[in-house]
Amino acid sequence: MLASEWKSQFPESNLDAFFLDQYFEQQYTSNKHFARIMGLFSAIALLIALLGLAALANFSAQKKLRDIAIRKIYGAERRHIIYLFAKEFLRTASIASAIAIPIAAIAMQQWLNGFAFRTSIGIWIYLLAIGCLVGISLATIILQSWKVIVQNPIENLKNP
């Protein structure tokens, strides 16, 4: 019925009917693919960063093996030894966050400006990212330093 009415009103053009939701779906298909790819690469980058952090924490712990052994002999608590490790890494994470957050905010704002409906990114998303960074870093550092803390300090002082 609609096609015959269209043909009577506009005989030189064909009716091209479609649903509006399908049209919008086609517009945002590339964004969905981009989100999947970015999610995959973000996961890979996070895994590589976590492995690097674990290796760095392990290297730092092995380098400070004698220092930790002496501290343990003199009665240092485990939490103080963990604090020694965490302080160094959290300082580095703070500097990295101070550099990365403004860059990410500018990049996200530029990307969001390309959409018809504008939205803003709240400060909470950046605080969540910093919280995840600190949580993952602390978990990795505590795990690596715990391996050194539970070792016998006498054995660590015997070996050169």
Q: Could you explain the architecture of this structure?
A:
The structure is a single chain. The protein has 160 residues and is mainly α. The chain has 7 helices and no strands. The chain has helices at 2-9, 20-27, 29-63, 65-73, 78-112, 123-149, 153-158. The radius of gyration is 28 Å and the shape is rod-shaped. The mean pLDDT is 85.
What characteristic shape results from the CA principal axes?
rod-shaped
Give the percentage of residues in beta strands: under 5%
| Overall average pLDDT | 85
How far the N terminus sits from the C terminus, by CA atoms, comes to 92 Å
Structural Rg: 28 Å
Biggest sheet architecture? none
Oligomer type = single chain
Query: Count the strands?
Result: 0
> Helix fraction?
over 70%
Number of helices: 7
What structural class results from the helix and strand content? mainly alpha
> What is the N-to-C succession of helices and strands?
HHHHHHH
Unreliably modeled segments: none
List the helices and strands and how they pair.
Elements: H1 2-9, H2 20-27, H3 29-63, H4 65-73, H5 78-112, H6 123-149, H7 153-158
Helix pairs in contact: 3-6, 5-6
Keywords:
mainly alpha, rod-shaped, 160 residues, 80% helix
Short description:
The protein has 160 residues and is an all-alpha fold. The chain contains seven helices and no strands.
